[in-house]
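Incident log, structure service

09:12 report received: a user says their structure output differs between two submissions of the same chain.
09:20 pulled the input from the user's history:
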Amino acid sequence: QVQLVESGGGLVQPGGSLRLSCAASGSDFSIHTMGWYRQAPGKQRELVATITRGGIINYADSVKGRFTISRDNAKNTVHLQMNSLKPEDTAVYYCTANFLMWGQGTQVTVSS
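09:34 re-ran on a clean worker, output below:
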């Protein structure tokens, strides 16, 4: 069974940057798609960004130009570089593998 462990969340001021990381372990099966979703208080979980094993990337419109997703297939890790953060980016960010397995989430708070 795949386990996903996220790291890198925290508190940052508007305009600041954070880098999230997620490491998958526990299985030898190929993970086709890895990515990030987020859930703000009182809202549904929403897509942030995904990346396939072949490098095809998809971003939510709200983060295009500010966030960059990357992946190391050999290490089964995925990263999310978040720049120009806004208060509306505040949420719990969840890593996913193949949209079937989920991490426990890491809190990102953007506030002055």
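09:41 both user submissions now match this output. Likely a transient worker issue. Closing.
09:42 reviewer note: The first strand starts at residue 3 and ends at 7. The chain has a mean pLDDT of 94.
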